[in-house]
Amino acid sequence: MSDSWFREQIAPDGEVEDGCHPDEAQALQSYLNNKTTPQEAAHAIIQPTLSSKDPFANLNSLWDLLQEALIQLPATHIPRIIILLQAIQDLSFPEKPPTIPTESADPDLERFSWKELPRFGHLWADTHRPDRWRNNLSTALSSNPTPENRQELRATHIRKAHIEALLAVQNVGGIPLLDWGYETIADALERSAAILDFEIPAAREWIAVAGKELFQGAKEGRQSWALRTKRDMGKEDERMNLGRWRFWEERMRECQERSKEGVEDAARWAAEEMRRLRELSEEK
Fold first, then answer.
1. Three-state DSSP class for 202?
2. N-terminal to C-terminal alpha carbon distance within the chain
């Protein structure tokens, strides 16, 4: 593995806003090079946060390092990085900052615990799942409208969906499984303006990784804030149900019949998997 990526993550001036601490980068690199166990790496990588004058400011740089690693390093590293995050999440006292800033307005920080990786999910949402991602995509494609750029942006979008689903299923970082999963699928299938070559493959990733959990939520009629959003082709009901699941399945079949490159295979696979999950439940 090249050293250059890890060097580029380090803050050149030591300010957490500009990058991570050298020891954090070294701990991650040693772990991915199989020199340390997940538990050893977890202990090592949090030391700059524990010794920081403002441990909570340092958290963002730590999470940013690990999130960028999930997105930018070879995909073969994704499972091991998630295992490392699980190891950090399992840390308990005395692996916590010795002081809590009294001026902190965040009640979660005042009860600091590594459980659910404080701020991790919020940082991911702000950085990698922004509300205006379609506008950002349009801007990126306008500045570089080549097929190669679109393909690269699409691959990154799909990879992020895959990572989100893995984090959610493995209960890492406080990622809301049903909410984010249903939002991704509903946006792809219930909006006439959906960017199909991005959103259908992303929905496919959620179904591939978390299909059982998402279908169980439909069987149980689970509520989700993601379903409250009014979509022009959807159903205005914050409860997920089997009728909506069948509707999604039908929409996937429609997409596979009239979609462009990058959508047909994803829609076909997703429709078949949704049918399989539904029929398997009906047999019981």
1. helix
2. 48
Task: Find, among 211, 143, 251, 162, the residue nearest to 154 by Cα.
Answer: 162
Q: Which two tokens stand for residue 85?
A: 């995050």
For the stretch 248-281, pLDDT in tens is 999 999 998 866 666 999 999 999 999 999 999 8
What are all long-range contacts of 23-28, with beta carbons under 8 Å and residues at least 24 apart? Answer: 23/47, 23/48, 24/48, 24/61, 24/62, 24/65, 25/65, 28/65, 28/66, 28/69, 28/84
- Looking at residue 58, its amino acid is N
| pLDDT-based confidence at residue 93 (cuts at 50, 70, 90) | low
Residue 236 bridge partners (DSSP)? none
- How far apart (Å, rounded) are the C-alpha atoms in residues 255 and 147? 21
Question: Bridge partners of 239?
Answer: 223
| In the block, residue with structure tokens 């079949």 | 253
Asked if residues 266 and 249 have their Cβ atoms less than 8 Å apart, the reply is no
Is the separation of the CB atoms in 129 and 164 below 8 Å?
Answer: yes
Cβ atoms of residues 134 and 195 within 8 Å: yes
All residues at 6 or more sequence positions from 32 whose CB lies less than 8 Å from its CB, including other chains: 1, 69, 73, 77, 80, 81
pLDDT tens digits, 197-244: 999 999 999 999 999 999 999 999 999 999 988 899 987 788 999 999
158 φ, ψ (degrees, to nearest 5): -65, -40
**pTM to 2 decimals?**
0.90
Which structure tokens are listed for 21?
A: 């601490």
Q: List CB contacts of 242: < 8 A, sequence separation 6 or more.
A: 218, 219, 278
Place of tokens 């009640």: 107
The Cα–Cα gap between 187 and 205 comes to 14
Token readout for 52 is 């920081």
